[in-house]
Design goal:
By secondary structure, the protein is α/β, with parallel strands linked by helices. The protein folds into 2 domains: 97 residues, 2-Layer Sandwich (Nucleotidyltransferase, domain 5), CATH 3.30.420; 54 residues. The protein has a 5-stranded mixed sheet. The longest helix is centred in the C-terminal third of the chain and has 33 residues. It is elongated and about 80 Å long.
Length: 168
């Protein structure tokens, strides 16, 4: 029997709605018991979960047993984010229902290598932006004191040493 499983995932627990031809059940699970939940899954099960901070770990575990795992893009699935009834049970039910109708906006999960590379690139981007902010602040301090620095002054070792020597 084919089952459609909607999951509302949180930091410490998750709510599961299991829909089949004749039944619909809702259960609360602790993330500590994720392995027990995984043992209840079958190859003919389809499972859907919103993309959050814990989704990668959750998906890694459930795809070992479930036939299909869908990661839902929360920015495109406004049915939950704009829901008036913000309850875990309702969210899990809606995810299961839309999974059954094959109407969920999927997001592709990055594999471990891709996620690490993306993280390094994002960190570099943030560092470059932070460096620019700091250079602008230093430039503003000098300008406030009627000292004009050259455009590339803060980009060289020599220029930075001179900034250290500045005395206001």
């Amino acid at each position: 029997m084919k089952r459609f499983i909607g999951v509302d995932l949180h930091r410490k627990n998750f709510t599961v709605c299991v829909r089949s031809e004749s039944t619909e059940t809702v259960e609360e699970w602790s993330l500590k018991n994720l392995q027990l939940f995984v043992k209840t899954l079958k190859k003919e099960d389809s499972i859907a979960v919103e993309a959050t901070g814990k989704t990668a770990y959750f998906v890694e575990e459930v795809e070992k047993r479930a036939g299909r795992v869908v990661v839902v893009n929360p920015y495109q699935f406004k049915v939950i984010s704009q829901s008036v009834k913000k309850m875990d049970q309702n969210d899990a039910k809606v995810i299961a229902l839309f999974l059954e109708k094959d109407m969920l906006p999927e997001v592709r999960m990055k594999r471990d290598e891709q996620a690490k590379l993306s993280s390094v690139a994002q960190t570099r981007d943030k560092l470059v932006k932070l460096r620019t902010i700091l250079k602008n602040k230093i430039n503003n301090i000098f300008a406030r004191n009627a000292l004009v620095l050259g455009k590339e002054f803060l980009s060289s070792e020599k220029g930075l040493r001179e900034v250290e020597k500045a005395n206001f």
